[in-house]
């Protein structure tokens, strides 16, 4: 299992607005570091240019789950009954109670809403539990600017062991013009990601 809680960050308006939609995901997951598959869940923001008002863009937040594999490349599945908005505090638990079955529990602490989702693996795919991840991922070549994000209460484990960020590895997001983030481990249970343009 892997768990974290974070505040949905504000998106800073871009000037000029993007010509194409850009999406960023904030998530927790199991595996993915070296084995070509990841059981994951989180939220994403899509910044879409306004067709009728050039120079402006809309921001849509949405929750999702995914058991991604390099073999099948299944897309993320939107969780339509779990609305999120800027400023909400959300928590996500991702676990694999069986090697070929995943379970996700998500909570919006601002609205007191809880949702759970079961995810079956594709044939021949199993969770190895080889790594746990707390991730901010660009789905596009670049990212919009965000206020800093702190993943808190970060924990992962098995039936017999628990882990946190004490031995974690940080990787920053690279964009078309260089690094887009600066991330650091603030404590054994908290990681901070600071976006480009913020000091």
Order of helices and strands: EEEEEEEEEEEEEEEEE
Radius of gyration: 17 Å
β-sheet strand percentage: over 45%
CATH T-level fold name: Jelly Rolls
- Average pLDDT over all residues: 89
Poorly predicted spans? none
| Straight-line distance between termini | 33 Å
Q: Give the name of the CATH superfamily.
A: Peptidase G1
Q: Can you summarize the main beta sheet?
A: 8 strands, antiparallel
What CATH architecture label applies? Sandwich
> Percent of residues in helical segments?
under 10%
Number of helices: 0
Structural class, by secondary structure, is mainly beta
The CATH class designation is Mainly Beta
Plain-language structure description:
- By secondary structure, this protein is mostly beta strands.
- It has a single domain, classed as Peptidase G1 (Jelly Rolls, Sandwich), CATH 2.60.120.
- It has no helices and 17 strands.
- The strands form four sheets. Strands 1, 7, 8, 9, 12, 13, 16 and 17 form an eight-stranded antiparallel β-sheet that branches. Strands 6-5-4-3-10 form a five-stranded antiparallel β-sheet, with no helix packed on it. A two-stranded antiparallel sheet has the order 2-11.
- It is 0% helix and 55% strand.
Fill in the keyword field for this structure.
199 residues; 17 strands; mainly beta; 5-stranded antiparallel β-sheet; single chain
Set out the fold topology.
Blueprint: E1 2-7, E2 11-12, E3 22-31, E4 37-49, E5 57-69, E6 77-79, E7 89-98, E8 101-108, E9 113-120, E10 132-138, E11 145-146, E12 149-157, E13 162-163, E14 174-175, E15 178-179, E16 181-187, E17 190-195
Antiparallel strand pairs: 1-7, 1-12, 2-11, 3-4, 3-10, 4-5, 5-6, 7-8, 8-9, 12-13, 12-17, 14-15, 16-17
